[in-house]
């Protein structure tokens, strides 16, 4: 993979977002990548974060035998204020000097990747110059697998539900220098608050000092290996690696490359936002079934999230739809070509009638699911129904389950309090997905309400899916619900606070869909199993679709009192200090500012495009490719239409007939879902939000409008 220069001047939060950690199987095989941030989030859906690779350097002064410690800066996001070994960090994907080791590198002890990463970080954190240490001089000793919630280090109070933690397979690296003077120490203030060379005796004294904090991994490594011990039963003395540095560095006596030593953290580092408890005591048995660095259903959720129930958001008013003129539509030759292709050359066909599907599922329940899918999203229905039969129903149910969850999220009046809504969201995976009789009456509108009311039919089909698919669906449902719950109490009248919050929301409601889909693709064996590990790229696929919708739906969302445009962006352009300013620009100047703001957001979204293309390039099954690529292409077209287009501020920007026609063919092949006789009510009555995929603007020329498309004509 081509490397991108790593920027050591970034802020801590940029590192969190941009550093791409190496996601691991419990056997230390590379299975994917994750942003540093996503990997370190502890939540009910991933109570121990995401397992990734790390290294821990212990640097000794040969002459005095002292070890260099660092105190992590108070501004660090994870484990601030703790004393720890010389340097601990992560090898990353995509570095100019490769940092990714494979099994062979571990077997022969070379682990050049981890060592390269160590050199990079010793320079960045401590200011040690590149020529002062040599990659060859590191001694790789062993690996340990541990996790720890960051419950202790955030200030005075124990953060029982800390959202952060570590979950790593850590490569322990020793290095010696002839004397302290051999290395320059210029600690980076964002990383390190203090450094200290200590003897063994001094360190033991510090360990006893209750006013000092230590990183859990440093304590584990030191007590287990670095400092010698006496066996309590035999009284036998065991040498520690620090006791005879010469032997440690020059022989392989202490090296163990075949074992991954597993440790649960000390009691005080259990818990965290996902309420994680003892786990690795079970050794290799315990880690069986890990997927993409996460233990599926490995949650210890207490399910009780208490919310402030005061805020209710307003129902939205109807906003105008901007359509394109006929002439301008005809000028989109590419779209016309797509339409012709789909109409006359190769219409998407539904695979729902396949014998495999008929035999596996209750036909009446499946028919309900298929019908309701067509009602709630024509566009996704079209791309889902052309999937191969071994994947189709899994994705269909995945869609309906999340649509049902989203209906709960989006109903602004059904629940007596936010607290009740949060409860309902967080329970969904163990009510709707477990109890075959579960229903919810009167929530949402139209076909979505029906989906919830007749949910047992969905459950019946869900229950007949392979266990692996159910696990993915249930896991993503819980994680999405947890994310939605986090936002229930937020006042979004003026949008999200900043880009981080905007990204976070999009991750929960769409990025996770991407992850779930990749896992379903992989488990169907239509795609390579490694796709399931492409957490980052999968996430970006969802973000791109969701951001496009959010940009397009500016006015609807604003009128609705639930907007997502980030303040850190739009406040740069709004003299009035209100998001609604763009809808009623007082001057020419103000109008221009609005367009600049819009362009800023479109540009932000477009930054995701390369990752989306990278994701698409990994697909090898034509139908899966089509399923993924069509919504992306529609999103690009939507962004194209929105760029520098003042219509975004006065209504909904829509596609023309060409795109819609292309989907009408897909409808014609899907028996039983032509238009609507039951019909959705016009979606305007009470706080229902309506957003389809970007492809939702592909609609049939006849029948009722797509759920996403309030029609002005
Ligand atoms: C490949 C192909 C399709 C992909 C993908 C990768 C990655 C992510 C996604 C689709 C998801 C994109 C969501 C974009 C549309 N946004 C919404 O519908 C918002 O709700 C989000 C929560 C429910 C997500 C449901 C969903 C959507 C598409 C799927 C799927 C599940 C499962 C399988 C396949 C596609 C939007 O909804 C409001 C409303 O319309 O009521 C919102 O609340 O913003
Ligand atoms: Mg929603």
Automatic annotation (TrEMBL):
Pfam short name (any one): SQS_PSY
CC cofactor: Mg(2+)
Ranges for domain Nudix hydrolase: 50-220
Pathway: Isoprenoid biosynthesis; dimethylallyl diphosphate biosynthesis; dimethylallyl diphosphate from isopentenyl diphosphate: step 1/1
Domain of life assignment: Eukaryota
GO BP: dimethylallyl diphosphate biosynthetic process; farnesyl diphosphate metabolic process; isoprenoid biosynthetic process
Keyword Ubl conjugation carried by entry: no
CDD domains, sorted: NUDIX_IPP_Isomerase, Trans_IPPS_HH
Keywords on record: Isomerase, Isoprene biosynthesis, Transferase
Region of interest called Disordered, as start-end residue ranges on this chain: 663-713
Molecular-function GO term, any one: isopentenyl-diphosphate delta-isomerase activity
PANTHER family reported in the protein's UniProt record: FARNESYL-DIPHOSPHATE FARNESYLTRANSFERASE (PTHR11626), SQUALENE SYNTHASE (PTHR11626:SF2)
Family affiliation: Belongs to the phytoene/squalene synthase family. Belongs to the IPP isomerase type 1 family.
Protein name: Nudix hydrolase domain-containing protein
Organism: Thalassiosira oceanica (Marine diatom)
Phylogenetic classification of the source organism: Eukaryota, Sar, Stramenopiles, Ochrophyta, Bacillariophyta
């Amino acid at each position: 993979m081509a490397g991108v220069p790593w920027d050591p001047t970034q802020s801590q939060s940029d590192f969190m977002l941009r550093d791409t950690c190496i996601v691991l199987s419990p056997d230390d095989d590379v299975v994917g990548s994750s942003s540093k941030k996503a990997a370190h989030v502890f939540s009910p859906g991933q109570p121990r974060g995401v397992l990734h690779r790390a290294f821990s350097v212990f640097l000794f002064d040969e002459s005095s035998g002292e070890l260099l410690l660092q105190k992590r800066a108070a501004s660090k996001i994870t484990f601030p204020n703790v004393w720890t070994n010389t340097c601990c960090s992560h090898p990353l994907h995509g570095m100019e000097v490769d940092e990714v080791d494979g099994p062979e590198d571990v077997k022969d002890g070379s682990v050049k990747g981890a060592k390269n990463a160590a050199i990079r970080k010793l320079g960045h954190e401590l200011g040690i110059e590149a020529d002062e240490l040599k990659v060859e001089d590191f001694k790789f000793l062993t690996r340990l697998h541990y996790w720890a919630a960051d419950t202790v280090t955030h200030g005075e109070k124990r953060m029982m539900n800390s959202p952060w933690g570590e979950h790593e397979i850590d490569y322990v690296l020793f290095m010696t220098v002839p004397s302290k003077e051999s290395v320059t120490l210029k600690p980076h203030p964002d990383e390190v608050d203090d450094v200290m060379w200590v003897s063994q005796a001094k360190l033991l004294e510090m360990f006893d000092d209750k006013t000092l904090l230590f990183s859990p991994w440093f304590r584990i490594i030191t007590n287990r290996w670095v400092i010698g011990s006496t066996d309590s039963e035999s009284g036998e003395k065991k040498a520690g690696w620090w006791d005879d540095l010469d032997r440690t560095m020059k022989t392989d006596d202490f090296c163990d490359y075949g074992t991954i030593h597993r440790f649960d953290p000390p009691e005080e580092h259990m818990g965290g936002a996902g309420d994680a408890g003892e786990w690795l005591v079970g050794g290799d048995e315990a880690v069986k079934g890990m997927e993409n660095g996460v233990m599926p259903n490995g949650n210890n959720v207490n399910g009780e999230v208490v919310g402030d129930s005061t805020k209710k958001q307003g129902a939205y008013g109807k906003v105008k739809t901007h359509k394109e003129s006929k002439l301008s539509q005809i000028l989109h030759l590419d779209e016309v070509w797509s339409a012709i292709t789909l109409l006359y050359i190769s219409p998407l066909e539904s695979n729902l009638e396949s014998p495999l599907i008929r035999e596996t599922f209750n036909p009446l329940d499946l028919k309900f699911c298929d019908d309701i899918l067509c009602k709630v999203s024509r566009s996704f229905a079209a791309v889902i129904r052309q999937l191969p039969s071994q994947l189709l129903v899994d994705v269909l149910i995945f869609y309906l389950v999340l649509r049902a969850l989203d209906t709960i999220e989006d109903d602004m009046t059904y629940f007596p309090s936010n607290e009740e809504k949060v409860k309902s969201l967080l329970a969904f995976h163990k009510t709707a997905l477990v109890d075959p009789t579960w229903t919810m009456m009167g929530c949402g509108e139209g076909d979505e309400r029906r989906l919830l009311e007749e949910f047992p039919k969905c459950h019946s089909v869900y229950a007949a899916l392979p266990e692996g698919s159910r696990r993915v669906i249930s896991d993503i449902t819980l994680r999405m619900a947890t994310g939605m719950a986090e936002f229930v109490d937020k006042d979004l009248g003026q949008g999200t606070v900043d880009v981080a919050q905007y990204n976070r929301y999009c991750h929960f409601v769409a990025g996770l869909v991407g992850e779930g889909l990749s896992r379903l693709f992989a488990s169907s064996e239509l795609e390579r199993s490694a796709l399931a590990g492409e957490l980052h790229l999968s996430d970006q696929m969802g973000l791109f679709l969701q951001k496009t919708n959010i940009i397009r739906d500016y006015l609807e969302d604003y009128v609705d009192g639930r907007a997502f445009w980030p303040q850190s962006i739009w406040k740069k352009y709004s003299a009035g200090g209100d998001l609604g300013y763009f809808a009623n620009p007082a001057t020419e100047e103000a109008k221009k500012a609005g367009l600049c703001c819009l362009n800023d957001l479109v540009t932000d979204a477009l930054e995701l495009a390369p990752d989306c293309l990278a994701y698409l390039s990994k697909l090898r099954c034509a139908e899966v490719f089509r399923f993924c690529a069509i919504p992306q292409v529609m999103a690009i077209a939507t962004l194209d239409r929105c760029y520098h287009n003042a219509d975004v501020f006065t209504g909904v920007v829509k596609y023309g007939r060409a795109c819609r026609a292309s989907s009408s063919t897909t409808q014609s092949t899907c028996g039983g879902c032509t238009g609507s006789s039951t019909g959705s009510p016009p979606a305007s009555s009470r706080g229902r939000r309506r957003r389809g995929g970007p492809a939702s603007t592909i609609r049939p020329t006849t029948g009722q409008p797509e759920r996403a498309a309030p029609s002005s004509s």
